[in-house]
Write a structure and sequence with these properties.
The complex is a heterodimer of chains A (293) and B (157). Chain A is an alpha+beta fold. Chain A folds into 3 domains: 7-53, Uridine Diphospho-n-acetylenolpyruvylglucosamine Reductase, domain 2 (2-Layer Sandwich), CATH 3.30.43; 62-173, Uridine Diphospho-n-acetylenolpyruvylglucosamine Reductase, domain 3 (2-Layer Sandwich), CATH 3.30.465; 179-287, CO dehydrogenase flavoprotein, C-terminal domain (Enolase-like, domain 1), CATH 3.30.390.50. In chain A, 32% of the residues lie in helices and 26% in strands. Chain A is built from 11 helices and 14 strands. Chain A has helices at 14-24, 37-42, 78-83, 85-90, 92-98, 104-107, 112-118, 124-132, 149-152, 239-252, 263-282, and strands at 7-10, 28-31, 50-53, 63-66, 69-73, 135-140, 143-148, 153-155, 158-159, 166-173, 179-186, 196-205, 208-217, 224-225. Chain A is globular. Chain B has 157 residues and is α+β, with helices and mostly antiparallel strands. Chain B has 2 domains: 2-78, Ubiquitin-like (UB roll) (Roll), CATH 3.10.20; 83-156, [2Fe-2S]-binding domain (DNA polymerase, domain 1, Orthogonal Bundle). Helix content of chain B is 40%, strand content 15%. Chain B contains 6 helices and 5 strands. A 5-stranded mixed sheet of chain B has the order 2-1-5-3-4. In chain B, helix 3 (84-92) crosses helix 6 (138-156). Classes of the chains: A alpha+beta (293), B alpha+beta (157). Chain A binds chain B through residues 1-8, 31, 34-35, 38-39, 42-43, 51, 53, 55, 79, 102-106, 108-109, 189-191, and chain B through 1, 17-19, 21, 24, 40-42, 45, 48, 54-57, 59-62, 64-65, 108, 111-112, 125-127, 129-131.
């Protein structure tokens, strides 16, 4: 289908965009790369009265390192993340994850800010933000708010961002020297939305986890940081402790059933991913006993 | 709204409604019907074109967003001879049947070959994963892209 009629304006600056959003509120939609907004408009799932195109705002572009923080502008495209030496050096989880975001033609337009503001529970970047402990920086006319990724995603396509605010950047802690990461998703075809996926960031000292953040996606109404990962910290992992953590994981998941997978299939795949992740990060093939997938 | 852009090297000035997407602008206004419209929500890849040298879904871009940009369609790539060998390989390998997906396939494949002179089959499949073919199947398409990559590599050496 085609999008219904709307008015269109190019915002000249963040200040200008915020004026427009303040005036039009939820009747306006922000257009960044358009790779989520345009499908939704073409399918007439949403019909904004005004589209505010922020694509030309230079101050929202770019990747910078400031001390131990990596600052990624909202208009940074997936392809920019994939090619960035700063991201590869300081947040390699993202480099690996963006390869799974849709297809090359989509990655050439889609932006990190757009993906996070859209908050599809099956998409990769929101989960990565949780795994990396990101801060989402949003600006309104009243000023700036800095929201922890864990508080930002509030439901299917729902975030803490108000209709008058603009997501301007994300801040990521620079990866520590002993940090390791894991990313894997099950999808029917490369680039499809995940059936179940896991983005994880960990610190390993000797043969134990001293930090482990496992962020699942496509297993609930928002990305989920698994509390069960806490059971694997500061102790040598055994098949028994992994099995306990796996049971605890299933308890905290609330997956949806859809055409792609049943609830029990998603729970099973989540367990498989936990075993693969722990086994890969600790270099312990003996722990990969989560079953076939 | 008035827009000014370049399409296949030619300067275009036009008046368009904001809701008009790039695919429809190319097809309906400029009569460049080689850009096909399949799903209209970014899944099938039939509408793939190049904007400022990068492949995009023209159904997921508004015509007004191309103001100041350079757009290349399959007509441009075909007329310039840029993809002549790829087109010949598609014919040779039976990599098209109804032809609906072919313009998008050619543009996506050319994009890969521009970035990577000798992609393996897995990489070819990954790069074309966003382009659907509903009749001939992918094996022959991957064959054609692989043949072209080899031929081009051979020509260079």
């Amino acid at each position: 289908m085609k999008a219904s009629a709307f008015n269109y304006t190019r915002a000249a600056s963040v200040t200008n965009a915020l004026e427009l959003l303040a005036a039009h509120g939820d009747k306006a939609k922000v257009l960044s790369g358009g790779q989520s907004l345009m499908p939704a408009m073409n399918l007439r799932l949403i019909s904004p009265e005004l589209v505010v195109d922020i694509g030309g705002i230079g101050e929202l572009r770019g990747i910078a390192v400031a001390g131990d923080v990596l600052i990624v502008g909202a208009l940074t495209r997936h392809v920019d993340l994939a090619r960035s030496p700063e991201i590869a050096a300081h947040a390699p989880l993202l480099t690996e994850a963006v390869a799974h975001v849709a297809h090359p033609a989509i990655r050439n337009r889609g932006t990190i800010g757009g993906s996070l503001a859209h908050a599809d529970p099956a998409s990769e970047l929101p989960a990565c933000m949780l795994a990396l402990g990101a801060t989402i920086v949003v600006r309104g006319q009243a000023g700036e708010r800095r929201i922890a990724a864990g508080d930002f995603f509030t439901g299917i396509y729902q975030t803490a961002l108000s209709a008058q605010e603009l997501l301007v950047a994300v801040e990521l802690p620079v990866a520590q020297r002993n940090s390791v990461h894991f990313f894997h998703e099950f999808a029917r075809r490369h680039g499809d939305y995940a059936i179940t996926g896991l983005a994880a960031q960990a610190t390993v000292t000797g043969d134990v986890f001293t930090g482990l953040r496992m962020a699942y996606f496509a297993v609930g109404d928002r990305p989920l940081l698994a509390r069960a990962a806490g059971r694997l910290l500061n102790l040598p992992v055994t098949p028994a402790s992994l099995s306990e953590a796996s049971k605890a994981l299933v308890e905290e998941l609330d997956p949806q059933e859809d055409q792609q997978a049943s609830v029990s299939m998603r729970r099973h795949l989540a367990k498989v991913l936990m075993a693969r992740c722990v086994s890969a990060l600790l270099g312990r093939p003996d722990l990969n006993v989560g079953g076939a997938a | 709204m008035s827009i000014s852009l370049e399409v296949n090297g030619e300067r275009i000035e036009a008046q368009v409604l904001p809701r008009l997407n790039l695919a429809d602008f190319l097809r309906e206004h400029l009569k460049l019907t080689g850009t096909h419209v399949g799903c209209e929500h970014g899944v099938c890849g039939a509408c793939t074109v190049r904007v400022d040298g990068e492949i995009v879904r023209s159904c997921l871009m508004l015509a007004v967003q191309t103001h100041g940009a350079s757009v290349e369609t399959i007509e441009g790539l075909s007329d310039s001879g840029e993809v002549a060998d790829l087109q010949a390989a598609f014919r040779e390998r039976n990599a098209l049947q109804c032809g609906y997906c072919t313009p998008g396939m050619l543009i996506a494949a050319q994009d890969l070959l521009n970035q990577n002179a000798e992609p393996d089959r897995e990489l070819i499949r990954a790069h074309l994963s966003g382009n659907y073919c509903r009749c001939t199947g992918y094996q022959a398409i991957v064959d054609a892209v692989e043949d072209t990559a080899r031929a081009r590599a051979g020509r260079k050496s």
